[in-house]
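Bench notes, afternoon.
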Amino acid sequence: MLILACNVGAVTVAMAKWLPIPFLAAPFIATLRVLWPIKSSVGLHAINLGAFGDSHVRFILATFSALGSAVFAASAISGLLFLLGILVANWRHAVIASVGALVAALLAAHVGAACDMINSGFIGFNAVLAAVATYELVAADLRLVLLAAMTSTWIFSFINRTWPSPALASGFVLTVWGIMLLGWLNSRFRPDPAPSEPQAPVPVPAAGDAPS
């Protein structure tokens, strides 16, 4: 753990110095990506958490659990405490975090994800982080908040299904970077304003002339 912490710290310093955009959670994700294929050779092994059960979705529970999972404490009580802490700091962030968690639960339920995967907050914590980060780092725009919540949920699900290592907060990081890229591209897709017709110059009366 100490070695990994030192590695993540070094990657954080490097990204802060050389990356022109916010690095967010990229240092610890990148460190795990490098470590995962060689985990056995360094004496580590993956823990099999088992499959998620499929009872029925509880959206309130899923919302609070996703908030708790954003700080690696997957429970409704932790999520409630986390929400209260955000509420004290900034009520807008508290609303946006809750919206992100709920949007992820609704989207996951619509596509038929395992209900306990939703209720545990596993599927929603990326949306919480992406919604708040987009609101704070990109623009205070609720439309971008909803886009971030939906996109991060999809990216997390895609990586979790197709990548051999855990998705972690990849959905959140890639979504914020993607929205920043879209903002940069958007400035180049705006049509140039139509040139206005030149106006005739207003004559300036010479010195000593009386105004008419």
